[in-house]
Write a structure and sequence with these properties.
By secondary structure, the chain is of the alpha+beta class. About 25% of the residues lie in helices and about 25% in strands. It contains 15 helices and 24 strands. It has helices spanning about 20-35, 60-65, 115-130, 190-200, 275-280, 285-290, 340-355, 365-375, 375-380, 385-415, 425-430, 455, 480-490, 490-495, 525-530; strands at about 10-15, 40-45, 55-60, 80, 85-90, 95, 110-115, 135, 140-145, 150-155, 160, 165-170, 175-185, 210-220, 230-235, 245-250, 255-265, 295-305, 315, 320, 470-475, 500-505, 510-515, 535. The strands form six sheets. Strands 1, 2, 8, 9, 10, 13, 19 and 20 form an eight-stranded mixed sheet that branches. A seven-stranded mixed sheet has the order 6-5-15-16-17-14-18, with helices on one face. Strand 5 and strand 6 form a beta hairpin. Helix 1 (about 20-35) packs parallel to helix 7. The radius of gyration is 23 Å and the shape is globular.
Length: about 550
Amino acid sequence: MTDEITREAMDYDVVIVGAGPAGLSAAIRLKQLDPDLSVVVLEKGSEVGAHVLSGAVLDPSGLDALIPDWKQRGAPVAVPVTEDNFYLLGPAGSIRIPNWPMPKLMDNHGNYIVSMANVCRWMAVQAEELGVEIFPGMSCSALVWGDRGEVAGVIAGEFGRNPDGTPGPSYEPGMELRGKYVFLSEGVRGSLAKQVIAKFDLSRGKDPQKFGLGMKEIWQIDPAKHRPGTVTHTMGWPLGSNAGGGSFIYHLDNNQVYVGFVVHLNYRNPYLFPYMEFQRFKHHPMVADLLAGGKRIAYGARAISEGGWQSIPKMVAPGVALLGCSAGLVNVPRIKGNHNAMLSGKAAAEAAHAAILAGRSGDELTEYETEVRGGAIGRDLKPVRNVKPLWSRYGLVASLTLGGFDMWTNSLFGGSVFGTLKHGKTDAEATEKVHYHKPVDYPKPDGVLSFDRLTNVAFSFTNHAESQPAHLTLRDPDLPIRDTLPDYAEPSQRYCPAGVYEVVTEQGKTPRFVINFQNCVHCKTCDIKDPAQNITWVTPQGGDGPNYPNM
């Protein structure tokens, strides 16, 4: 259908998809190198930052490399880490894990508690001052291919399709934005990056990418309990042996704290309910005491790439490069990826600038790949490459010991006694059938500390026009009821943190699988965890989705 539509085209030197830290860093660096380069950034959110969700404790190394005078320029990076705590939780108590046995790379001092949404808004201002064109509300719905099979651009700004996909009465076909190079910085499991990885077989010879589901609330708390700069991470309860993961609690300014929970998506039990694990966590005495008398003011969720060094695909193909979380550059034990996203954007920009200066276009930016793997990003990710597979194989306690030992040997001697461990199965393949497991009994949310999903989704300020096609598509519409309901108790009902999927059973009728796509917060968990890989997330029309204030 796309081929039958005539669109206007605009040409740029570099087209960037996604106004996150990676895409904005690339745009800024390109203009720093050559103010005459034409650079455009296309962002699917209603504004820059609307779809940005991260912890976040920011390692400023990426910002230092990109904009050394960021403090003087007023970057919203103003709450330095003053206290760093690690706890192992039980149902009613906790054990403080001392900081001294941990490798230096785990130290958060010198880092900052930030809203990455606000950092990106500030970065967008810096980019526009340099002459970068930034267009929010512009979803990129398809790739444009060149005569040599290279990625030559994207289609952006398509609006007004009917629910069945046909053009409606107010249909706008969008435009072709063509570039000598296209940078995909869509975040985790981006729809265009997924196509490029498959088309060019970029994951060949690499481990499967692994993922976690991160859920986050912002709380306004009692000023007497607020300690700006305090960073707390926990492991253990309530997940126990059911799944890997843990929590973060970050005290920023204005008497606010970020309360977050991450569940590794390689869990086996299809009855596990990640969102309810998060809600249960807040009833731990340590957390409940902190939040008592406070109020939740925002909620959101997103997937996190956790595969690390082993899972980074080839990052370049003809005409295109994968940046930041589109390539999976998160340091899992540090719970940090924003600095690497920025560094990847800077490296991609430098490679593209050199190529354009040499008269090249539409080829592979191999210099970018070389810099990522051999430079600061590689030095950050390689020493921690075994932490995730050790946790997956041996569980929490063993991984604390073995993972810590492995990080020390890598830090001190530049090598590991384990070599490079493999991840094994994909997260979808890790899901086991129901007859191996028992349902998990979760307490009902109390509406004070814990909340049902739909109530919380309202605090993500998400919205999708109901007249558009559903952006959550099924390869086989009959499969959820026919196969995954009897085999896996249809786990999408539980792994989705926004209540998008439900099985509706009416007396005397066959159960129906319902997709409430209006609730979607674009976390991409369904695209990752569905055991049959039957669900595909594609971009909705521009501006739709969550509208995060300062996540």
